[in-house]
Give the backbone structure.
Amino acid sequence: MATTLLDELLKQTEQLSLEEQLTLVAHIAERARSGLKAGSPPPKPARREWRDIRGMATYPLLAEDAQAWVSRTRREGDEARERQWRRTP
């Protein structure tokens, strides 16, 4: 229902003069602004906790030293590029 009301309001605003449209925009902005507590900044997004991302790491990162993982993936990438270069004439 809200979408229907919004669509109807949008159609009606097309019939307003430019000055009336600007007045409407100013009024809506003021109402939105007064919805916040006077003098208070907008609410900050909630701070994320480490436990929120627990389990997000993919398998290769588990139970493997970080430097060993970096070295291994670089070596694998180098080998894959070498194989690709050898295939092209």
